[in-house]
Design goal:
The complex is a heterodimer. Chain A is an all-alpha fold. Chain A has a domain of 203 residues: MetI-like (MetI-like fold). Chain B is mostly helical. Chain B is 69% helix and 3% strand. Chain B is built from 14 helices and two strands, in the order H-E-E-H-H-H-H-H-H-H-H-H-H-H-H-H. In chain B, a hairpin with a 3-residue loop joins strand 1 and strand 2. In chain B, helix 2 packs across helix 13 and helix 3 runs parallel beside helix 7. Chain B is globular, with a radius of gyration of 27 Å. Classes of the chains: A mainly alpha, B mainly alpha. The interface between A and B is large, with 111 and 115 residues.
Chain lengths: 304, 346
């Protein structure tokens, strides 16, 4: 009746269950739970990822004097972070909301067109038969290994000729569709879209485009969502080309934050507040869609 | 496969005769639809690539043999003058040294650590998704932002890293003065952003390794370390090649992080961390405003990227193949997966 035997009893039953579970597993027990060391190491890896972002918040809520005097001016962010945010937003160096709108517009347009054109091409490569299909697909894949960034000079000359320097088209047009997107959608549609469905649509008299729109597009949705995510992140973080063709009066956020650095280097708390502001939208996106990003990378994504 | 077969003939219901010409027209239209649509659908990519990718690369060669200033535009044909000009600038050679140094400091540790993290993740973890998302977080931070944050962490005076070193009684390191120190700082930015990403790619590859291989190894008495080196590494070699190749192509063109490592953005007072792409930018749009010379830099860098890519492929291929011979023959699924990923990286 005392609690001692009962406890022992429970422990015994639990231990027996655990033992049964252990012995029922395959030889080496590849699916046994890993030890604490694994979690400690992974925890360290995650902290190394979070640390610099937290440090950004700390410096962003500090002031230049404190930053100059101490490597760790404070341990927690405070309300002056928001003062610094509003200083960045009302800065003379650039129009924050304009830069934000530009970044958002470029990333959204590029994501939408990349998904549309990649799915079209992927549908064609995966499911239609035409002369030269194989070599053309190999060509698409080969272009992924070509450092096209090194064509910036003629690209700049072209943009200057048609008067696009300083305007958003100059950034959007080269990003309308990517080789990676085409390859990605081809791979996905090869497996996800049964020939029978296309056949049925054709027998019903649907045109090619109708078949694409009502059969291939819906089937491609999961891969299309991932492609849109990756394109969005790539464009949001893009710096090299925008910093060449855009200027102070019409920047994207990464270009703007570089202006912030060049203009306010005496006040690093402002620069850090700005850095956090441009990162925040993607962190929010990551909280909601990080799962899809993980799945996308593991399904064979490559660097954008 | 009906797509390839001729469009099904439509039987017009009796009593509702249609004009024969119209039927013929719509059939012809349908045949054209079948024949042309595939090309039409892939054309956006090819047209765009031709205009914004291929043509600029080829035209770079044309610009590089001309006098071509940023403001004045095209000048005379001058042969290889631009090339000899840049080869005569010490900054060019310094930029190559810096690029390779930063590239080695970032890619080698990055691939190694990513494989270790992947091996840690490739277990029966609690809260799998949390850990996977956790290591991926830095990927959504823009390189410019990473550069600014780390530029401050690696500040020479009152930076976080020097503060931590001082805590252990180590003298502060002049991250923004010493060439090698600045390379370590910039490489750490690259590693910060990409290690988790690559770990997930490796994790996916590791999960495709047939579990029977491990069971067989355990029966043979192999420990975890032995399993890792004799099974995991050879089995994921195609993926290792792929990751090494993509990080080569990206790493040799690094720009964002060194650009924001200090306020001036010109690679340091004596070009300690000026990479070749940063040098290209400086020649074209910075101090020299000479697009002809910048094009010469671009061409040289292009050739370097292509050559190093091939060398890397050969080396990685050899290293990981020598391990593969010892393991059991691969299943068909494995071979297909390997072929697919090597095709992808080609």
């Amino acid at each position: 009746m005392s609690s001692v035997p009962t406890t022992r009893q429970t422990a015994g039953a639990g231990a027996a269950r655990a033992a049964a579970r252990r012995s029922s597993r395959k030889v080496g027990g590849y699916d046994r739970r890993p030890g604490a060391l694994t979690y400690v190491l992974l925890g360290a890896a995650v902290l190394i990822g979070l640390g610099p972002l937290y440090y950004t918040l700390l410096l962003g809520s500090s002031d230049p004097i404190a930053i100059a005097q101490s490597s760790l001016p404070q341990l927690f962010p405070d309300a002056s972070l928001f003062d610094n945010f509003s200083k960045v937003i009302s800065s003379d160096a650039f129009d924050f909301w304009k830069a934000f709108g530009n970044s958002l517009f470029i990333a959204l347009v590029a994501s939408a067109t990349t998904v549309l054109f990649s799915t079209l091409a992927g549908f064609s490569f995966a499911k239609l038969s035409f002369k030269g299909r194989r070599p053309l697909l190999v060509f698409v894949i080969a272009t992924m290994a070509v450092p096209t960034q090194l064509g910036v000079i003629p690209l700049y000359i072209i943009m200057a000729k048609i008067g696009w320097i300083g305007s958003l088209q100059a950034v959007i047009v080269p990003a309308l569709v990517t080789a990676f997107g085409v390859f990605w959608m081809t791979q996905y549609l090869e497996e996800a879209l049964p020939f029978e469905l296309i056949e049925a649509a054709r027998v019903d008299g649907a045109s090619m485009f109708r078949t694409f729109w009502s059969i291939a597009m819906p089937a491609a949705r999961p891969a299309a969502a991932m492609l849109a995510l990756f394109t969005f992140v790539t464009q949001w973080t893009n710096f090299f080309w925008p910093s060449i063709v855009l200027n102070q009066s019409n920047p994207t956020l990464p270009v703007a934050v570089r202006l912030l650095q060049a203009n306010y280097f005496v006040d690093y708390s402002l620069v850090m507040a700005g850095v956090f502001l441009i990162t925040l939208p993607l962190i929010i996106l990551f909280i909601f869609a990080g799962r899809q990003l993980v799945a996308g990378i593991m399904a064979g994504a490559v660097k954008g | 496969m009906s797509v390839q077969s001729p469009a099904p003939e439509r039987v017009a219901p009796q009593g509702a005769p249609r004009a024969p010409r119209r039927v013929g027209f719509s059939q012809r239209l349908s045949r054209w639809d079948v024949k042309l649509s595939p090309y039409l659908y892939i054309s956006p990519f090819f047209i765009l690539f031709a205009i914004t990718g291929l043509f600029p690369l080829i035209y770079t060669a044309y610009v590089s043999v001309h006098q071509w200033s940023l403001l004045g535009g095209q000048g005379d044909y001058i042969g290889f003058q631009n090339f000899t000009d840049i080869f005569a600038q010490p900054a060019f050679w310094r930029s190559l040294r810096n690029t390779f140094s930063i590239f080695l400091l970032s890619s080698v540790p990055q691939v190694l650590v990513a494989i270790v993290i992947a091996a840690l993740l490739d277990q029966n973890l609690r809260a799998k998704t949390f850990w996977r998302m956790g290591v991926l977080l830095p990927y959504v931070v823009a390189p410019v932002a990473v550069g600014l944050i780390f530029g401050r962490m690696f500040a020479d005076q009152s930076g976080l890293i020097n503060g931590a070193l001082g805590f252990f009684g180590i003298d502060p390191i002049r991250w923004h003065v010493d060439a090698l120190a600045s390379h370590v700082a910039i490489a750490s930015m690259v590693n910060f952003r990409w290690t988790g990403y690559n770990a997930l790619i490796f994790l996916a590859a590791m999960q495709a390794v047939p579990r029977e291989l491990y069971e067989a190894a355990i029966i043979d008495g192999a420990g975890r370390v032995r399993q890792f080196f004799s099974i995991t590494i050879p089995q994921i070699r195609a993926t290792i090649i792929f990751v090494v190749l993509t990080s080569t192509i990206g790493g040799l063109q690094i720009f964002d992080e060194p650009r924001v490592f200090d306020e001036a953005g010109r690679g340091g007072s004596s070009q300690q961390w000026m990479t070749t792409t940063l040098y290209l930018y400086d020649v074209g749009w910075g101090t020299q405003r000479n697009l002809g010379r910048a094009a010469a830099v671009a061409w040289v860098l292009f050739l370097i990227v292509v050559v190093i890519g091939f060398v890397n492929f050969a080396i990685t291929n050899r290293i990981s193949t020598s391990g593969a011979d010892r393991t059991t023959t691969r299943t068909r699924r494995q071979r297909r997966a390997a072929a697919r990923s090597s095709r992808r990286s080609a």
